[in-house]
Structure formats: structure tokens, C-alpha cells
Write a structure and sequence with these properties.
Blueprint: H1 6-15, H2 19-26, H3 40-49, H4 52-56, H5 59-70, H6 74-83, H7 91-100, H8 104-114, H9 120-128, H10 133-149, H11 159-168, H12 174-190, H13 192-206, H14 211-224, H15 227-233
């Protein structure tokens, strides 16, 4: 198939812009600046059209993703995430893109892409300790993606994530504390082996002097000790 250029796709996205959707997205914490209001199913539809390129010429969607990301348009960046090739993503690209994140939805989708890279675990640890709000969120969302999707990794490898959760749980920023909480819950739900140490972390956080840490711990404790989770893990 013919590879479109980034400008063609940007024109296509702008032709389907919906200002009413932008208002709705803002209510969910998605910044309006640079946002067209194009819905996710439309973006996934375009990504599906471009899927043959992944086999024909993987370099083409990778280069196209770079052009879309560089535009700064919210939906173009989301499309870039959907079409990029994980095996061609470099660490330099990951470090550059994470600094551009200005919205939780881009952050969370992007970490799905980065989780498939060989340096994902290193990035998760490093970013979890950074000060920038969305970089720190990216670190913990990356932990979530790895915990859920990396079925081959031994459970013991995820214990370090719990240490990072406990260390960073006092961050009051909403997008950070929610990602820390998410990581704690995902680790605890991965297996019966990880459940007990995750519950122990949640229990300690519930007693913290930090309001954010208490929320992280209490919310996670409630889910991890629920009947549904116990039944799923057979404990």
C-alpha cells in the first residue's frame, strides 16, 4: 500500500474535528489546547488501515509516527502511538516523547507501546523517581502495563515495584497518586504470590502521615482484600 505522509493524516484528522467533543474531553482532564475532538474509534480505524505497512515496510509507520508526534496535535500523537513499531522505538525516542506528554490519556496509551521495548523496566524505575508530573505517572503506568502483559517474567521481579510505590505514595498530585495506586493494585492482583506483599504495603500506607499515601493504601487495600480478587487468585 502507499504510505501517506504525516500532513495527509493531519488534514484527515482536522476534517473530522469535533469541538463539542473537545469540551467533553476537558471534563475528563484532557487539555483542550491542540485537541481536535476526534474520537478514539476513528483513530483506531485509521491505524487499522495502515496495519499492512507493519509487514511491508516497518520503517514507514515508524517514520510516520515520528512526524505525527512532532505535530503536537493531541489526536495525531495518539495515532502515532497506535501505529509505531515497538522494536524500532529507541530509548532516546522514549526519553524525548515522555517529556512532551501533557495529558493522562496520551501517557497511558504511550506506556503500552513502551512496555514492549527491551528497556521498559529500566524506564519504569527511572521515571518513577522523576519530579515531572507526567514523567512520574509514566513510570507507574509502565509498571502497570508490564505487570499485566509480561507473562513470562517471574513474580519476584515485580517486588521492586512495590518498593517504588511505597517510596512515592506521598505525592499529592492527582495524576501521580492515581498511577501509584494503580500500580499497587495491579501488582497485588498479578498472582497469589504477590498479593500478600502488596496488601502489606497497602496496610502500611493506610497508616501514613501523608494524606495521599493514606488514600493510595486505603483504596488499594479495599480492592485487594475484596472477595472478587481473593476468588480470582484462589486465596
Amino acid at each position: 500500500m502507499r504510505t501517506p505522509d504525516a500532513q495527509e493524516l493531519l488534514d484527515r484528522l482536522r476534517a473530522t474535528a469535533n469541538p463539542a467533543n473537545v469540551v467533553g474531553m476537558a471534563r475528563y482532564g484532557i487539555a483542550s489546547e491542540g485537541t481536535l475532538g476526534v474520537q478514539i474509534p476513528v483513530l483506531r480505524g485509521i491505524a487499522k488501515e495502515l496495519k499492512p505497512l507493519r509487514k511491508e515496510d516497518p520503517e514507514a509507520p515508524h517514520a510516520l509516527a515520528a512526524g505525527l508526534w512532532a505535530s503536537g496535535v493531541h489526536e495525531a500523537r495518539m495515532l502515532a502511538v497506535f501505529i509505531d513499531i515497538p522494536t524500532l522505538v529507541t530509548r532516546e525516542q522514549a526519553e524525548a516523547w515522555v517529556l512532551d506528554i501533557g495529558s493522562w490519556d496520551i501517557c497511558d496509551q504511550l506506556m503500552g507501546l513502551f512496555a514492549a521495548t527491551p528497556f521498559a523496566y529500566v524506564l519504569a524505575e527511572e521515571w518513577a523517581g522523576r519530579s515531572e508530573e507526567f514523567v512520574k505517572r509514566a513510570g507507574f503506568v509502565l509498571m502497570c502495563a508490564l505487570t499485566v502483559h509480561d507473562k513470562k517474567m517471574a513474580d519476584g521481579s515485580f517486588l521492586h515495584f512495590l518498593e517504588l510505590v511505597e517510596r512515592e505514595a506521598s505525592d499529592e498530585r492527582n495524576f501521580v497518586k492515581k498511577s501509584v495506586n494503580w500500580a499497587l493494585r495491579q501488582v497485588g492482583k498479578r498472582s497469589a504470590t504477590l498479593h500478600a506483599p502488596a496488601v502489606a504495603v497497602a496496610a502500611r500506607l493506610r497508616q501514613s502521615e501523608s494524606r495521599a499515601a493514606r488514600w493510595v493504601g486505603s483504596d488499594a487495600f479495599r480492592e485487594l482484600e475484596s472477595e472478587a480478587v481473593h476468588r480470582r487468585l484462589g486465596i
